[in-house]
């Protein structure tokens, strides 16, 4: 059995003050992704920052980041349309026009820490339809049980291709599900047959829930977006140690690490429209 490892090097929240090894500029992100790919990651989940290190949906920054990654390694790029709480939905959604192999699709508006993560239903439907038109695979990020139902409604409306639906179960965000094994099991049991899924466990329970997800047949994500620490009280000196830890965990469970070609097949990625 093979497992897909995704690296999430940056995210929208943390700063270099939180961890000085956080990559924020295109060259830094590309270097971090290349190192993660060499260690076994087949997918790169990309958030963008501007020159002042703030979340941005600037298409020029996105294109430069994607190009630099492609120069360094053949990893599959997944752009986040979440971007950051302060960035308007339409700016975030426009990132799919760059035709990455994958992009996130967040189905619901929700409280997110002290802020609000806005994903209005009509706009989500338009984005889902546009992604389908462009051949950009949605990564469906679900932060609560009702988010799964919203995704299944999109599927039933013909806005999502069914083979296979790709889910990220996000645990530990204030405003979403707590990072507990029970919450993970609840969502896994309700996923559609043949769905592909991974866990995104934010914070101190990252390693524990990643291990549980791997044992249940899920994929895994690693990187400074999800946890800034390699161990209790110790900051991770970059993304690479977190990816290496996840790869070692998977191998300890006798799982094979999927390369880019196998991942393309496992995730059902088609050819992006020209």
Automatic annotation (TrEMBL):
Gene3D superfamilies: Aldolase class I. It comes from Streptomyces hygroscopicus. It comes from the Bacteria. PANTHER family: 3-KETO-5-AMINOHEXANOATE CLEAVAGE ENZYME, 3-KETO-5-AMINOHEXANOATE CLEAVAGE ENZYME-RELATED. Keywords: Metal-binding, Transferase, Zinc. InterPro entries: Aldolase_TIM, BKACE. Its cofactor is Zn(2+). This is 3-keto-5-aminohexanoate cleavage protein.
């Amino acid at each position: 059995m093979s497992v897909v490892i995704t690296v999430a090097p940056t995210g929208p929240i943390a700063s270099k003050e939180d961890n000085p090894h956080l990559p924020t500029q295109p060259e830094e992100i590309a270097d971090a992704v290349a190192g993660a790919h060499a260690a076994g990651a087949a997918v790169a989940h990309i958030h963008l920052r501007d020159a002042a290190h703030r979340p941005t949906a600037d298409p020029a920054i996105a294109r430069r980041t994607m190009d630099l990654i492609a120069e360094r390694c053949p990893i599959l790029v997944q752009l986040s349309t979440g971007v950051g709480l302060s960035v308007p939905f339409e700016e975030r959604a426009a990132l799919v026009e760059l035709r990455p192999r994958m992009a996130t699709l967040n189905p619901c508006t929700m409280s997110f820490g002290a802020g609000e993560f806005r994903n209005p239903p009509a706009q989500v439907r338009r984005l889902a339809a546009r992604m389908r038109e462009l051949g950009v695979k949605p990564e469906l990020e679900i932060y609560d049980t009702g988010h799964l139902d919203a995704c299944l409604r999109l599927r039933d409306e013909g806005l999502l291709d069914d083979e296979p639906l790709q889910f990220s179960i996000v645990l530990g965000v204030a405003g979403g599900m707590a990072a507990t094994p029970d919450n993970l099991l609840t969502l896994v049991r309700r996923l559609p047959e043949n769905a592909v899924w991974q866990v995104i466990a934010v914070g101190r329970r990252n390693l524990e829930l990643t291990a549980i997800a791997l044992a249940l047949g899920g994929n895994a994500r690693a990187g400074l977006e999800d946890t800034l620490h390699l161990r209790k009280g110790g900051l991770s000196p970059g993304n690479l140690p977190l990816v290496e830890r996840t790869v070692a965990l998977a191998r300890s469970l006798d799982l094979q690490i999927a390369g880019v070609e196998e991942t393309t097949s496992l995730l059902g990625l088609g050819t992006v429209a020209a």
